[in-house]
Design goal:
By secondary structure, the protein is mostly helical. It has helices at 3-21, 39-64, 70-91, 104-127, 136-162, 166-188; strands at 28-32, 35-38. The chain is built from six helices and two strands; from the N terminus they run αββααααα. Strands 1-2 form a two-stranded antiparallel ribbon. The longest helix has 27 residues, at 136-162. The chain is globular and about 55 Å long. The N and C termini lie far apart (38 Å).
């Protein structure tokens, strides 16, 4: 098994450890602007960031050294979706986002629904021998998610304390891009639904 595939597997292995962090005791690592920063969320944030770093690395290594495999094509996007979905699901009801925390379930459903739709379209395309390439909007969406979720995890309470909802703004932007990129993807590839 080559290095990019090992990094993909490592990312998938990290997900249960990421989830386990949410069940750790509520130990306070430090206080900032009156907000308590809990150790378990800092650890979860670090795992999340490291997992996303492996996502960037495995793709670049695979392309640079010609190590692209069918396993990587299948498992890499699955690992990404699982990590993002796990994070958003675990954030529901945690009251970590600086404002409008009640929107987290809605954001989560939108993100997961988009991934189901796109994955389904890719399966249909694959059955017809077609490849559906990721678009620029999808990459922007992924980048925003990879920034927003650790911001909510680690710094949401701080943003709430100082009255600057930066975490909410970036996460909301990622959800807007989730919808936009999903619609763009469907429109660009609508021909896969046509009867042959």
């Amino acid at each position: 098994m080559n290095l990019p595939n090992k990094l993909t597997i490592a990312r998938m292995i990290a997900i249960p450890f990421f989830i386990a962090c949410f069940f750790l005791p509520n130990w306070v690592m430090f206080r900032l602007f009156g907000a308590e920063i809990l150790t378990k969320y800092v650890i979860a944030g670090i795992i999340f960031i490291l997992a996303y770093v492996t996502d960037t690395l495995d793709g670049r290594i695979a392309r640079k050294y010609g190590l692209v495999t069918d396993f990587g094509k299948l498992m890499d996007p699955i690992a990404d979706k699982l990590l993002t979905a796990a994070c958003m699901i675990m954030l529901i009801g945690r009251d970590l986002m600086s404002i409008c925390d009640f929107l987290m379930p809605i954001f989560t459903v939108i993100v997961i629904a988009r991934e189901f739709v796109i994955s389904g379209m890719r399966l249909v395309a694959a059955s017809k021998g077609r490849v559906m390439a990721a678009g620029t909007l999808g990459k922007i969406k992924t980048t925003l998610q990879s920034v927003a979720l650790p911001m909510v995890l680690v710094a949401g309470p701080v943003f709430r304390a100082i009255g600057v909802p930066a975490d909410f703004i970036v996460l909301a932007a990622s959800v807007v891009m989730t919808i936009w990129s999903g619609l763009d993807y469907v429109i660009r590839n609508k021909e896969i639904f046509s009867a042959e």
